[in-house]
């Protein structure tokens, strides 16, 4: 079943390009988005004035990515909340609220309970799910299935990039519906999204270099991840993978938060991954993150930067630079996450751990 791969996780990372391509299939055509999946809530979507995304773990990080894209394109306010927190805090919901649940398995109890609760309160629930006919889609008003194929390894990888893709499609659909982006802008974004699978292939080719890096770090006790804007959920995802797979203390931060506390953790030898925003990003976050790199480097940390091809500004300050191909800044996280998935897997393998079945974890968490 592993088809010659050393683990399901290795196989599933290799399927990340396909997971994106299949999720786009038939939905991104001729420069426009076609989501027939939304037909059951088509009328209600017109009156939505707010979105709440609910999910757990890696799916919640995909949700943060979705928030940034949906807000930017559709101008609808979006919140992201962990499903187990949402359910128990008496959230304000009404029939103009669209709740979007995200779950690979479609069986996560925390997410299922939150979906049921949201519907009881009168919200519309749209679910993004990778498993046909699972409980969460059955309990929802509409479903966008991700077509990543079955994910067996406990660590979620190809499902994450497929969830990001589905959220991008939803954002572009809402922007079309609300007229908040021109059809030219949508066509450009659709074309760029369709180019992502081939770009992920190119990132996968750097796998050996990441394996070597992981091999050097097998004794590391703590790793930090910094990212900003859409790089922030990628930092969280990189850290979760190290905890879950390699049992290493790892933390992801929003880079802007560094000076509000975490910089005190930086000491000689500390390994810090930095997801560097595109120098082309209109928000001009690139120089801010480069100066974060200088600050942590000055305190003796070892910096591994994930940066766009041709980004020369990070080279003098980083110990290692992993390059990713150019894409629209909102889509770059689908590329930047790939080296971190490989890194988590390779570090676990270097420590001799079971990559597919980490201790204490189940693939789907069917208890609250
Ligand atoms: O099946 P789901 O997407 O609902 O699962 C959610 C989380 O349990 C899951 O993403 C978990 O965080 C992964 N093991 C992370 O790699």
Automatic annotation (TrEMBL):
Domain SIS: 41-180, 213-358
Coiled coil: none
Keyword Transferase attached: yes
Keyword tags: Aminotransferase, Cytoplasm, Glutamine amidotransferase, Repeat, Transferase
Reaction equations catalysed: D-fructose 6-phosphate + L-glutamine = D-glucosamine 6-phosphate + L-glutamate
Subcellular localization, as worded in the UniProt entry: Cytoplasm
Assembly description: Homodimer.
Protein name, UniProt field: Glutamine--fructose-6-phosphate aminotransferase [isomerizing]
Organism the protein comes from: Frondihabitans peucedani
Organism classification: Bacteria, Bacillati, Actinomycetota, Actinomycetes, Micrococcales
